[in-house]
Amino acid sequence: MTLGIRPEHFMRDGEINQVDTIVRFVESLGSAHFGYLDLAGLEEPLTCALAERPATGSVITVTLPPEHLYLFDANGSALARPRNASARDAA
Hints:
Blueprint (H helix, E strand, L loop, with lengths): L1 E3 L13 E12 L2 E7 L7 E5 L8 E5 L6 E3 L14 H4 L1
Antiparallel strand pairs: 1-6, 2-3, 2-5, 3-4
Pfam families: TOBE_2
InterPro entries: Mo/tungstate-bd_C_term_dom, NA-bd_OB-fold, Transp-assoc_OB_typ2
GO molecular function: ATP binding; transmembrane transporter activity
């Protein structure tokens, strides 16, 4: 199983699914910033859209909103979401 989330769906505030990450690198594209964040246990960094530019090496907490998480099987096929499931049920 692989867990997927789009960079623009990470949140900097939230109450569930919080993870602490370390900023590896920040790419600024005009007013948009994309952080490449190290998370314990992952070889590749998470890519996260950010409103502000954090310092390299700083620790930031990001939230993984359940309604924006996707599961993929070993072949890369997305698993279907249950119908009528609320964000609270997905947590």
